Structures are given as structure tokens and as C-alpha cells.
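Q: Please design a sequence for this.
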């Protein structure tokens, strides 16, 4: 997909020449996202992190950028090609889609330069010092070459298909993000005046990108797979002189475009669109900076890309594959120290989890608390003959998930309903497969409400207890039912048998399977029905308390804050005197510290060992504090375009833990926290002589430490503009 340059139709006088009030108050979503990925890159640059963890962070920035290009950049290009650049007025900041895209591409190019600077100037030298080397073919010893060639002959060569581009051999269809080698060739028999031809070899996806050569206690040597393939291209193109060669990679548009009226079923529609995604229009080409201009230009023209959509990389074109280095090198001293999550234990007189939940709610903070408890809750539902029915939402899970196994086994003997979200981005293929397997096992599989992603995290068990009473037991969470990611995503789980919660959870399932709307879901907030209005009402209630001189404050932790109406409510609350602390890991359109608008709002982001994924919202409520958790960020997609559930945590000890241990720790962090400044930059939180990491503290607490959160560093304030 190429960005076709057009005249925007906007006169110079009408274009934005200075900051407008709107642009002053709302940061661009995409620029905010780029700043988030910059914070991840800073972890790769941070020498206080273990070396292989830094490599891992760099790989994560590349994977993040891939998705951003596939979705956000592709979206801009799609709108431009569809004519929106001329047909639609400029956005709230006064920019056309083309102008937004132009600015974004400049940021992406600078970011890619910073990625490779980190790799070449920091990580590779540090790896070499640690006797971990990524070698070129020319650097290999005779022994290493023999080992590499043996691997090539046995594992690589049988999978290769060299193609020379000519009238009878058209350019091959290059799959999304497939690593390829481009070659400039000249036929030997036709002499030096013969025209050059383009050759292409696709590097097999099934093979590791880093081929181990020698890995012992002392040394670990690797060669990149494409480097190995490049070393053998003369054998593949016999009869040709190889004038130049270079690895390249094309990223394609991965947005799903679904038409409800043309769909026989959601499952069939998503399956068809997944096939199309692999062939979507090109939006970016990465190619090694050593490539000749002729190869670059031929490839660029073939993929119909503008020059700014070509990224010359000073190193391997797919940095996300460096993640293999982390798994291949067995050096514990170069990684974070091992952490074992705290195991949940039943109370002294409780015989099982159901007995426990009849007496009290259980709250888990993953990964500090083991996710096994959630798995065991669902497994207990499958195995316990007294459990009559099970209902479950699944957004993302993992291969060989105990939860998936439990649901399929339960389908043999009891009523089981599973709402599977087929459009969980980049997990659609596996979700289709699981949906089919669940159906085959006798499970009732539903796909939620068309046009709305089912993102809520709910499990509901109905059980006839020993006293003869039929009760509901529920799990409500902030994270996916994925035991793999639960080891490095922070999330909240609440297990309960409280009727005021479990009855409403059942209403949510009725909504998901039959689209029947209840008059109320209180105390739950449910998107897209009650959450958006309910959230604004909670913020406005704090403003009313502040005006009346009662305690008024908001502490909200989430992944993203972009919803315009919610941001405006926060601005109004700030003006009313509400103290607001926001812990926003990723995108944030709210601008703190603006005089007369957001003077009482502080925004911080924490990027560390674990991915901050929990959503926790605390409201002072005039002294009667309320705390909520849930699956929804404060973004339009969560409040309007998805089925989400936010739930209160009312049990006093759990309420206290959320506020005084978990949220307080994140507000006190001055090691991994960055504070959003009024101009959009993020700065490290001031240390004031105290070094405190929330995640390290929470690990120590899980291991049994008796420690309190320091109070001295909990309220940094940005400069007011």
C-alpha cells in the first residue's frame, strides 16, 4: 500500500500555525504510542538491567513497532487511498491524514535509528564481552563453517525456493513479515552487457533465525539464518553472477475488514479475512543499509511504496527475532533472578475452594500470586460432580492450557457455555481452532455480539452445595485466561460467591449469548451499556465532593487513556479541586499540568520486568472510598466497541490491599516510573534519596517480606503551564 501524495485542499491560512486549545489539551494517540515504545527502548538501553533482559526489551520494541505499522500506519494509508484526505475535514488538531502520517513516519524513522544504535553501540559490544557473539559468515572458523553447512544441508536447503524474476517467473507473493533475500543477478553466458535480473529467496519461517554454532559454559556463538542462506546463494543461482545481495522484509496491512451482511457466520468471516491478511497491501519495507540502490529501488517499485516507507537498517531487519537469543543462552546471571509466585492456601477449616469462597472473597495479584489458583478454580468446576454448569469467556489463551482442557472435559458431563472472541488481534487463527474443538467436545460455543469484541474476563460456576442450596461462584479478572502471560503480566483476579456480584455476572453472560439487556447490572459497570456513563458519573461525583469540601481524589491505573469524554471529565474534576493520580502504561491523550485545566492531575508510566496490565480505579467518595478493577481501559474501543466488565472490590482487607499496598507502591515507584510532562515528554521520577521499585517491592512481599511502601515520594507534580 503506497501513500499517494495529494494536495490536501487546505489553505496555508487555515492550517494550524500555532497550538490551538484542542491541540494543547489532547496529545496525539499515535505520537503517545511512539513515546511508550521509546520507554520500552530505554529499558534496553539501561545498563542496570541484566544484559539478556535488555536484548529482550529491544526485541519487544521491534514486535511492538510491527503491530503499530500493520494497524495504525496501515490505517492512515487506507484512509488516504480511500479519498478521506480530500473528502474529510482536518482532524481536531488541524491536520489531514496525510499530514499526520508524514509526521508519524519521521518519528518512526528516528525510532528505528535509535533501535539499531542501541544494538550496535551497546548490546552487541556487551554481548561480546560476555562471550556471546553473532558472527558473520566471513568470521567463522573452519569448524564453525562445517557445523553451519551441515545445518544448511539438512535443515535449510530442502525448504528453499529460489526465484529469478523474468517474464515467465513473476515476482513471488511475499508474505507479511517474511524474511527474504533480494539478489541482483547477471546471466554469465550473456556477458557483462546483459541486463541485470532480480532474484528472491524466502527464508523459511519454520527455522530459528539464530543458528547456534557453539554454546558452552564459556562461549555462545551464533550466525543469523539469513546470513547462512546468503553465503550459499551462488549454489542456488548457478549460471548467474551474484552482483549484490541483501535481506529484506515487508510489512503488510493487517487490519480486518468485515462486512456483517455478507457473513454467513463470524467464524467463517474471520477465517476468510485471516487469509486476506497474509496478502494485504505492503506498508513498509525494511532492508539492510548495505543494499545497493538498484535492489532497493526495484523492490520499492514492486511493492508500490513511497521512499519514506523504506527503512534501511544498520543490522538484521527483524530485531524481534533477537528474542531467540534470550531463550537459547542459558546464563541465569544475565537474566532477572528467578521469581516463584506465592501459592494460595485454603484457610485452616476450609475443605475446598468453594467452602473458602462461601466465607470470604479471594483476591490474587498476578504474577506475584500464582495463577494456578484460577486454573484450579475452573478445573474444580470441571471435576466436581456437584457443579451443574460452567460459563466462561475466552479472549486469549495458550497452547495446552489447563483451562481449555478443563472446559473440554466438562463438556462431556455438564452444561458448559464458552464465549470465544474470534477477533482477538493476531490470535484469531488459534481461537478458531479452539472454538471448533470445544464444539466437538459438546461445549456450547458463542462468539458474543457481532461488532463488539468480548473482552471481559469472567468465569461462572453453578454448584449444588452440601447444604442443598444452589449457589453461583465467579472469577472476575483484569487479564486473559492465559497461564503463560500470567507469569509476566500484572493482573488482578477476584474469586467470589457474593450473590450481588455473581447474579450480575450471569446477566452479563445472558447479554453475550442472547443480547438480552438487563435493566441494571449494578454494582458492575458493563460496556457498551453502562460503563461509559458510569465512569463519568464516578468522576463527576468526586468533583461534587471536592466542591462541598469533602475528601475527593482519584487514583486510576490502566494501559491506555484516550477517551475524550472521560478526559474532559477529569479536567473538570481537577478544576473542582480533585487530586488525580493516573498510572497509564501506554497511550495517554490527557495533558497534565495545564494551568486552569489539569493542575491537579499527575500522570506516570511504569515499564519494568513485568508488563503492567491491571486496571484499578480508586475514588475517595467523600470519605467512603470505593475501589474497582476490570478489563477496560479508558479508551473508546473499551467503552464503546467492546463487551467489558468493571467490578467493585468491597471486602475490607482486599480493598485495603489494593489501595495501601498495590496502588501506593506504583505511586511511590521512582526507579521504573516516568512522569508525563506538560509538553508530552516523559522524565524519570525524582528519587529524593530513596530508590523504590514497585515490582521489586511486590515480589518481596510475595516472598514474605514485612515491608511498607515509603510515603516520601508518592506525589510528584509536573510544572504548570
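A: Design:
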Amino acid at each position: 500500500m503506497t501513500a499517494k501524495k495529494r494536495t490536501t485542499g487546505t489553505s496555508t491560512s487555515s492550517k494550524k500555525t500555532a497550538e490551538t486549545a484542542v491541540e494543547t489539551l489532547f496529545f496525539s494517540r499515535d505520537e503517545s504510542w511512539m513515546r511508550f515504545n521509546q520507554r520500552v527502548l530505554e529499558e534496553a538501553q539501561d545498563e542496570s538491567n541484566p544484559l539478556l533482559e535488555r536484548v529482550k526489551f529491544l526485541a519487544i520494541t521491534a514486535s511492538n513497532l510491527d503491530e503499530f505499522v500493520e494497524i495504525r500506519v496501515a490505517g492512515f494509508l487506507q484512509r488516504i487511498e480511500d479519498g478521506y484526505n480530500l473528502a474529510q475535514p482536518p482532524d481536531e488538531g488541524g491536520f489531514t491524514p496525510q499530514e499526520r502520517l508524514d509526521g508519524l513516519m519521521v518519528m518512526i524513522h528516528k525510532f528505528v535509528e535509535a533501535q539499531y544504535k542501541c544494538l550496535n553501540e551497546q548490546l552487541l559490544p556487551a554481548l561480546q564481552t560476555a562471550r556471546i557473539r553473532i558472527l558473520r559468515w566471513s568470521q567463522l572458523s573452519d569448524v564453525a563453517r562445517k557445523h553451519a553447512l551441515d545445518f544448511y544441508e539438512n535443515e535449510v536447503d530442502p525448504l528453499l525456493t529460489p526465484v529469478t524474476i523474468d517474464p515467465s517467473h513473476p515476482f513471488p507473493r511475499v508474505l507479511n513479515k517474511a524474511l527474504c533475500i533480494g539478489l541482483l543477478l547477471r546471466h554469465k553466458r550473456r556477458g557483462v552487457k546483459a541486463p541485470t535480473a532480480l532474484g528472491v529467496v524466502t527464508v523459511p519461517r519454520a527455522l530459528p533465525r539464530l543458528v547456534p554454532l557453539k554454546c558452552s559454559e564459556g562461549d555462545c556463538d551464533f550466525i543469523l539464518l539469513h546470513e547462512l542462506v546468503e553465503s550459499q546463494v551462488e549454489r542456488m543461482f548457478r549460471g548467474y553472477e551474484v552482483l549484490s545481495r541483501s535481506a529484506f522484509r515487508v510489512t503488510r496491512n493487517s487490519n480486518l475488514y468485515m462486512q456483517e451482511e455478507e457473513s454467513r457466520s463470524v467464524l467463517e468471516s474471520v477465517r476468510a479475512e485471516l487469509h486476506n491478511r497474509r496478502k494485504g497491501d505492503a506498508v513498509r519495507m525494511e532492508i539492510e543499509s548495505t543494499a545497493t540502490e538498484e535492489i532497493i529501488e526495484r523492490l520499492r517499485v514492486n511493492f508500490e511504496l513511497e521512499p519514506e516507507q523504506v527503512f534501511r537498517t544498520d543490522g538484521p531487519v527483524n530485531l524481534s527475532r533477537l528474542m531467540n537469543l534470550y531463550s537459547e543462552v542459558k546464563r541465569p546471571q544475565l537474566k532477572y533472578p528467578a521469581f516463584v509466585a506465592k501459592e494460595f492456601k485454603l484457610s485452616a477449616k476450609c475443605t475446598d475452594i468453594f467452602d473458602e469462597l462461601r466465607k470470604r472473597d479471594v483476591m490474587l495479584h498476578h504474577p506475584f500470586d500464582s495463577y494456578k489458583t484460577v486454573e484450579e478454580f475452573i478445573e474444580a468446576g470441571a471435576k466436581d460432580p456437584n457443579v451443574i454448569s460452567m460459563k466462561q469467556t475466552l479472549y486469549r489463551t495458550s497452547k495446552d492450557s489447563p483451562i481449555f482442557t478443563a472446559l473440554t472435559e466438562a463438556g462431556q458431563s455438564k452444561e458448559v457455555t464458552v464465549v470465544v472472541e474470534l477477533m482477538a488481534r493476531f490470535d484469531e487463527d488459534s481461537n478458531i481452532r479452539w472454538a471448533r474443538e470445544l464444539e466437538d467436545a459438546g461445549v456450547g460455543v458463542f462468539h458474543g455480539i457481532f461488532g463488539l469484541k468480548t473482552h471481559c474476563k469472567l468465569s461462572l460456576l453453578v454448584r449444588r452445595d452440601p447444604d442443598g442450596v444452589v449457589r453461583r461462584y465467579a472469577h472476575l479478572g483484569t487479564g486473559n485466561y492465559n497461564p503463560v502471560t500470567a507469569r509476566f503480566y500484572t493482573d488482578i483476579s477476584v474469586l467470589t460467591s457474593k450473590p450481588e456480584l455473581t447474579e450480575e455476572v450471569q446477566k452479563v453472560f445472558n447479554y453475550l449469548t442472547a443480547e438480552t439487556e438487563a435493566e441494571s447490572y449494578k454494582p458492575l459497570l458493563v460496556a457498551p451499556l453502562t460503563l461509559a456513563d458510569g465512569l463519568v458519573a464516578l468522576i463527576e461525583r468526586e468533583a461534587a465532593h471536592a466542591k462541598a469540601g469533602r475528601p475527593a481524589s482519584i487514583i486510576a491505573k490502566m494501559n491506555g487513556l484516550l477517551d475524550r469524554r472521560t478526559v474532559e471529565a477529569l479536567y473538570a474534576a481537577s478544576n473542582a479541586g480533585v487530586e488525580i493520580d493516573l498510572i497509564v502504561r501506554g497511550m495517554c491523550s490527557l495533558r497534565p499540568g495545564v494551568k486552569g485545566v489539569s493542575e491537579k492531575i499527575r500522570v506516570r508510566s511504569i515499564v519494568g520486568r513485568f508488563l503492567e496490565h491491571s486496571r484499578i480505579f480508586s475514588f475517595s467518595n467523600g470519605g467512603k472510598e470505593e475501589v474497582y478493577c476490570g478489563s477496560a481501559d479508558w479508551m473508546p474501543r473499551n467503552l464503546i466497541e467492546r463487551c467489558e466488565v468493571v467490578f467493585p472490590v468491597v471486602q475490607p482487607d482486599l480493598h485495603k490491599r489494593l489501595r495501601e499496598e498495590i496502588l501506593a507502591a506504583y505511586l511511590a515507584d521512582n526507579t521504573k516510573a516516568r512522569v508525563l510532562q506538560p509538553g508530552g515528554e516523559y522524565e524519570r521520577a525524582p528519587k529524593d534519596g530513596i530508590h523504590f521499585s514497585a515490582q521489586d517491592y511486590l515480589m518481596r512481599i510475595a516472598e514474605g517480606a514485612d515491608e511498607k511502601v515509603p510515603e516520601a515520594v508518592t506525589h510528584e507534580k509536573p510544572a504548570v503551564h
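Q: Thanks. Anything notable?
A: The chain has 21 helices and 27 strands. The longest helix spans residues 97-129.
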